[in-house]
Amino acid sequence: MSEVMMNVDIVVPNQTRYLRLVGNIAEQVAREVDVTDRDRETLAYHLNLVLTEAMANAIEYSRPDGDGETVKVCLSIENCDLWIRVFDNGQGFDLNAVPTPDFDNLTERGRGIFFIRSLMDSVEYRRTDAGNVLEMRKHLH
Questions:
Q1: What is the block-wise mean pLDDT of the chain (141 residues), using blocks of 10 residues?
Q2: Which residues, other chains included, contact 96 with Cβ-Cβ below 8 Å and sequence gap of 6+?
Q3: Nearest C-alpha neighbor of 95 from the set 52, 61, 49
């Protein structure tokens, strides 16, 4: 049985103006984690980046009539793992079909999933009856 040491749930309108707020909350959660100060600041930066990229994707690919839609973010620490789950009602996507960016011809877009996969220990995506869930795990110790 897993021990939940911290759980933070956030629900915001699917608008980009909330990206900074949610990223800052992720940084604060990282600063409460039991790791060294140097590792804590790196973790805070990584969580902010990962979460804002995941939320930006959820917002960008939400339904065209997305007025009134929300994005839910759950951050939890269970045993030695930090979990981030992003829930949305958008069109969804195939995580395995997202290509690695072409670093010789970079554009302004298309690197979010690459960053998420690079910085987290596991990344899964699934559609449920209630919507989409992007689930990311970072092992802390």
A1: 80 92 93 75 93 90 72 91 91 71 62 87 90 92 78
A2: none
A3: 61
pLDDT given at position 102: 63
In a 3-state reduction of DSSP, which class is residue 40?
helix
Residue 94 — φ and ψ, nearest 5°?
-100, 105
DSSP labels for 42-103?
Answer: HHHHHHHHHHHHHHHHHHHTS-TT-TT-EEEEEEEEETTEEEEEEEE-S----GGGPPPP-T
Fold of 4-139: Heat Shock Protein 90 (3.30.565)
Q: Report the C-alpha gap between 75 and 66 in whole angstroms.
A: 24
In whole angstroms, what is the distance from residue 78 CA to residue 96 CA?
A: 26
Q: Are 41 and 67 in contact (CB under 8 A)?
A: no
